[in-house]
């Protein structure tokens, strides 16, 4: 297998030839900086949100859908909510809501930041289709461990996960790997197949945080390092990019749906300003623009 040079902000599909197991590798660099740089997040909150972005991309890449895949974690800790979504055309955005007075120290674990709560996966393919949602309690030190707990309980999809994020001189970096296998409908898995799965999971667990996030080590090189003895085939990478779906028209529609006196009570010097929670873009409406909005 040819070894390519390093690349960021992508999903790399692959297959382990000896066992037929399929997987995805995610590697993020500038995309994380773009998302996290739009808000003044404390370091632990930024770390948790970066982890959320990596995990969301991994999970979304394992599904076939046309629309939006959303991952959100809610808890009773200092961080009330982290949410990220990935569209089927590869755009990513994310946001965190937190109580800054309760965020202290440098702990980045799920129990320290989110406390008790749940992790929810949602696939929305539009108003004409039924939304799919999976929910699991927050049970683990990291979000990928919480997601792993969900898959251990699932009869529809078996998966193994490993991810890492770090913040250093070169900015934010994140990476992760997800392995999948389809369950045996007769629940009689041949011993050799079970051994293949266990071996692949052991090798996945051997990947270090540095290997998952190291810019000098390409995704192809990491997969070769882990699975070369079993043969690994890498498929074309799927690029990912930051993009927010907010717009002035959407904000105007939201304002129009609210009582006019309630909106006008929020005005400062006759102007109402609305900031997008995801990208922090600010939309400003003066008295004349508000009047025109409600007249429409």
Automatic annotation (TrEMBL):
Molecular function GO labels: protein folding chaperone; unfolded protein binding
Gene Ontology cellular-component terms listed: cytoplasm
Single biological process term from Gene Ontology: protein refolding
Cross-referenced CDD domains: Hsp33 (cd00498)
Pfam families, per database record: HSP33
Keywords: Chaperone, Cytoplasm, Disulfide bond, Redox-active center, Zinc
UniProt xrefs under InterPro entries: Heat_shock_Hsp33, Heat_shock_Hsp33_C, Heat_shock_Hsp33_N, Hsp33_helix_hairpin_bin_dom_sf
Highest taxon in the source lineage: Bacteria
Protein's UniProt keywords contain 4Fe-4S: no
SUPFAM superfamilies: Hsp33 domain, HSP33 redox switch-like
Protein name: Molecular chaperone Hsp33
Protein species of origin: Inquilinus limosus
């Amino acid at each position: 297998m040819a070894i390519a040079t390093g690349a960021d902000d992508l999903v790399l599909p692959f297959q382990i030839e000896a066992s037929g197991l399929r997987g995805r590798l995610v590697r993020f660099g500038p995309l994380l900086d773009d998302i996290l740089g739009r808000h003044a997040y404390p370091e632990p909150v930024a770390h948790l949100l970066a982890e959320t972005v990596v995990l969301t991309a991994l999970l979304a890449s394992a599904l076939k859908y046309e629309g939006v895949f959303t991952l959100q974690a809610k808890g009773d800790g200092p961080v009330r909510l982290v949410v990220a979504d990935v569209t089927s055309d590869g755009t990513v955005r994310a946001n965190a809501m937190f109580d800054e007075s309760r965020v202290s120290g440098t702990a980045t674990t799920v129990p320290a930041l989110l406390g008790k709560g749940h992790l929810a996966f949602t696939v929305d393919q539009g108003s004409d289709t039924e939304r799919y949602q999976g929910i699991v309690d927050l049970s683990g030190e990291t979000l990928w461990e919480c997601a792993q707990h969900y898959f251990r309980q699932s009869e529809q999809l078996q998966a193994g996960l490993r991810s890492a994020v770090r913040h250093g001189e070169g900015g934010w970096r994140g990476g992760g790997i997800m392995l999948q296998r389809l369950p045996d409908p007769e629940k009689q898995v041949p011993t050799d197949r079970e051994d293949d799965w266990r071996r692949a999971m052991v090798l996945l667990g051997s990947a270090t945080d540095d290997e998952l996030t190291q810019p000098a080590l390409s995704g192809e090189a990491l997969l070769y390092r882990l699975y070369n003895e079993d043969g690994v085939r890498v498929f074309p990478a799927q690029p990912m990019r930051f993009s927010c779906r907010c717009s002035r028209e959407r904000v105007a529609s939201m304002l129009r749906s609210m009582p006019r006196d309630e909106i006008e009570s929020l005005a400062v010097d006759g102007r109402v300003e609305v900031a997008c929670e995801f990208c922090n873009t600010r939309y400003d409406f003066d008295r004349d623009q508000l009047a025109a909005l409600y007249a429409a």
